[in-house]
Design a protein that fits this description.
It is a single chain. The protein is of the alpha/beta class. The protein has three domains: 60 residues, Nucleic acid-binding proteins (OB fold (Dihydrolipoamide Acetyltransferase, E2P), Beta Barrel); 164 residues, 3-Layer(aba) Sandwich (Rossmann fold), CATH 3.40.50; 58 residues, Ribonucleotide Reductase Protein R1, domain 1. It contains eight helices and 13 strands. The strands form three sheets. It has a six-stranded mixed beta sheet. Helix 2 links the parallel strand 9 and strand 10. Helix 1 crosses helix 8.
């Protein structure tokens, strides 16, 4: 059979092949890269803090789909002057010390990283207006323990309700707590309460987490007077706050003595990434008592031969602490009440 094209036809000539150019195995070393911290993320652009100046940057292609989040320490190249119109390039994300994660709900396999490299999780909840939601507090504590962060419970609007009942719920867990109220004349947080909170945050990178309307941004403005975070009110019909913070932002504390991360108000906190063995490891005193548990024990109250029950019966474990641990464990599986 004769060929389809002759040597005189244009189609006869071989067309250029794709990717004929040899790729080099050598990659840039980026020896001149500078290290910075991501302070906020907005639609694919990253605002960095580099030696006290704000630098806009984008993610380089070799990073692929690797996420870059607030709190990340990154290496950047390009124009790092911070002048208007300049854009640097993030070429590497430094290994993270901690990662605060959540999922949209408990059966969502996709983890969302909220903040990296923070060492304190400040769970902010109002004692009234809006009403406290202990289930969310429990879930935030689980996330803090599993990520290796120190949790702190901050109760706001103490001028409207007593904190005693809520604090009693968490006393056996040993969670540090602070109570803040509002000055009757100005409506702003009391100065002595803000000073106590500032002392607790000094020298740390702390994430503020809570529902909309609980007063996170108000506390941020009190801690950092020039922060300029928007504040909102609570809807009288739904009892829920209005979103005022739309994205997480890291704000340095005065005198460069630590930083706080203000996060948008959340409506849910999924824990699909947390397993029972992850949580028990964060309670070393209780984990030692599970050595006699049968294989596959989830350590819940429904387990017939859990070592925690045996330890309580012998008097080796504090029953209130075991109950508190199991309440946190139950929060991993129960998303019906927030």
């Amino acid at each position: 059979m004769s060929p389809r094209y002759t040597e005189h036809d244009q189609e006869h000539y071989e067309r250029p092949r794709r990717r004929t150019r040899p790729r080099t195995k050598d990659r840039p070393s980026y020896d001149d890269a500078e290290e910075a911290v991501v302070v906020t993320v907005d639609r694919g652009r990253f605002t960095l803090d580099l030696d006290g100046r704000r630098v806009m940057a984008m993610k380089s292609r070799p990073l692929g789909r690797k996420g870059v989040v607030v709190g990340d320490r990154v290496r950047v190249v390009g124009d790092t002057s911070g002048d208007d119109g300049t854009l640097a390039r993030i070429v590497e994300v430094v290994d993270r010390s901690t990662v605060l994660r959540r999922t949209a709900d408990d059966d969502d396999p996709v983890e969302r990283i909220i903040v990296a490299n923070a060492d304190q999780l400040v769970v902010v909840t109002a004692l009234a207006d809006p009403e406290p939601r202990p289930r969310l507090i429990d879930r935030a504590l689980v996330a803090a323990y599993v990520s290796g962060m120190e949790p702190i419970l901050v109760l706001t609007k103490a001028d409207l309700a007593s904190p005693d009942d809520l604090l009693a719920t968490y006393r056996s867990l040993g969670v540090p707590w602070l109570v803040t109220g509002r000055d009757p004349e100005t409506g702003e947080p009391r100065e002595e309460d803000v000073a106590a909170l500032r002392d607790r945050l000094r020298g740390h990178v702390s994430v503020l987490l809570g529902h909309s309307g609980v007063g996170k941004s108000t506390l941020v403005n009190a801690l950092v007077p020039d922060a300029g975070r928007d504040t909102g009110s609570v809807n009288a019909v739904t009892g829920r706050g209005r979103h005022t913070s739309t994205n997480a932002v890291m704000i340095p504390l005065p005198d460069d003595d630590g930083a706080i991360v203000d996060t948008p108000g959340i409506r849910s906190f999924g824990l699909a990434h947390v397993q029972p063995e992850d949580l028990i490891e964060t309670f070393p005193d209780l984990e030692a008592m599970t050595a006699e548990c049968p294989r596959g024990c989830t350590h819940t109250a429904e387990e017939p031969e859990c070592g925690l029950d045996a330890a309580v019966a012998r008097g080796d474990a504090d029953p209130e602490r075991v109950d508190s641990f199991r309440r946190l464990l139950a929060a991993r599986y129960d998303s019906t009440s927030w």
